[in-house]
Amino acid sequence: MEQKNTWETYNAKQLGEVDAFARAYMDFLDNGKTERECIDQIVNTLEDAGYRELESLVKDGKKLKAGDKVYSVWMNKSIVFFQIGKEKMENGINILGAHIDSPRLDVKQNPLYEDGGFAYLDTHYYGGVKKYQWVTIPLAIHGVVVKKDGSTVEINVGENEDDPVFFVSDLLIHLAQEQMEKKANKVIEGEALDIIVGNKPLVIDKKKKADKEEKGSDKDAVKKGILDILKKDYDMEEEDFISAELEVVPAGKAREAGFDRSMIFSYGQDDRVCAFSSLKAMLEIGQTARTACCILVDKEEIGSVGATGMQSKFFENAVAEVMNLLGEYSEMNLRRCLSHSCMLSSDVSSAFDPTYAASFDKKNVAYLGGGMVFNKFTGSRGKSGSNDANAEYLGHIRAIFEKEKINFQTAELGKVDLGGGGTIAYILALYGMNVIDSGVAVLNMHAPWEATSKADVYETKRGYVAFLENADLS
């Protein structure tokens, strides 16, 4: 049970591949800080690789055959794509599943206000966050504004060097005696996570200034200044916030970390690290016996709910459409396909942190540089809310990985009584298919900036390729 260091198993050629893969992954992170941005990148990549849109094939009455590649996007936030195998889908398919949403701050529907000479946007945090981590760091705003006429305005402010950034203020240490005595979850309250977006009153001409002096001081002049900018730059009215999806995320690019450049430091690696690795694995495989499938979904961080979460019927509907285009569809065949399938629920695992060693079981924890991670179960304390993979399935996965010489490790999410976490695994397991959690170890999980090992990211892609080409428990 001695743990290998993945770096020590690579030759010079593989070390070059590790760095190249990391650069591509970092670029993906920089250009995909929201679900919609991830989908745009993924669709462009798939179409360049010869994938066709499933809905257009259905509309045109086209048929599918072995070797064909199709994709389907749902509400611009989730996607599923297939490479058709030689065998009938009734016998099962091999599935990679990950999520592309990450913890963040969401702008509310009536957000803009002025107080104390500052203009603010009111926010609501999304997913599990330590709220105190989000103060005094540079923030960017990404998203879309959908106007009443149906037109869409894309927003991306804070990433370019000449862009302004935004921030949440904090109390200066000189006056923070009472604040410092609070528990960590109370140091910064959720309603205090409003971002400062301006401080300059609306500039007015001399005539308007004279009128203002006659009528008294102008109320909310800073807020009006921001509205003036929004109108000029984005043709956006205040009421357009009602139909906007604006996400506040850490500003800045992914960076290499450490003198040895062995790590990647970035926002959003949970779980875009597994999404990117899954995408690249799908592009790398050749013709397979079983159909290969990858599903990348929204809303995992808040329970996989909603029309774009894993609990929706989007995935099942897409499988049915594919089977129909293959001439294989019936309700019974669909059920057989799903129950006979094998899946890797690809999500991140907690990496061992020596600074907080007391929170981990050292024998059952993932280590940065230890390779791809398998979690037989997640959940909390008494395995509550988890999918607990069968021993037979674990044995099957072990055989594949040893055959393909994939470095892997097994882990749990911290000590038994300290909590844990969840993934989409239990949802797919409802079909009766074999599912196990797998992915990449992450340090600082759910923080604004997370760390991964380049070697683990690359090795996980290799593991996904091995799984897609070999998994079959029938």
Report a brief summary of the structure.
The chain has 474 residues and is α/β, with parallel strands linked by helices. Helix content is 30%, strand content 23%.
Textual characterization of the structure:
Helix content is 30%, strand content 23%. It is α/β, with parallel strands linked by helices. A nine-stranded mixed β-sheet has the order 1-2-3-13-4-14-20-16-18, with helices on both faces. Helix 1 (12-30) packs across helix 13 (454-470) and helix 8 (269-284) packs across helix 13 (454-470). The longest helix has 19 residues, at 12-30. The model has no long low-confidence stretch (mean pLDDT 94).
* Sheet with the most strands: spatial strand order: 1-2-3-13-4-14-20-16-18
Largest sheet: 9 strands, mixed
Poorly predicted sequence stretches spanning 5 or more consecutive residues: none
Radius of gyration: 24 Å
User: In the CATH classification, which architecture of the largest domain applies?
Assistant: 3-Layer(aba) Sandwich
Q: What is CATH's topology name of the largest domain?
A: Aminopeptidase
CATH superfamily of the largest domain: Zn peptidases
Helix content: 25-40%
CATH class of the largest domain: Alpha Beta
**Secondary-structure-derived class:** alpha/beta
Proportion of strand residues: 15-25%
Distance between the termini: 29 Å
- Total helices: the number is 13
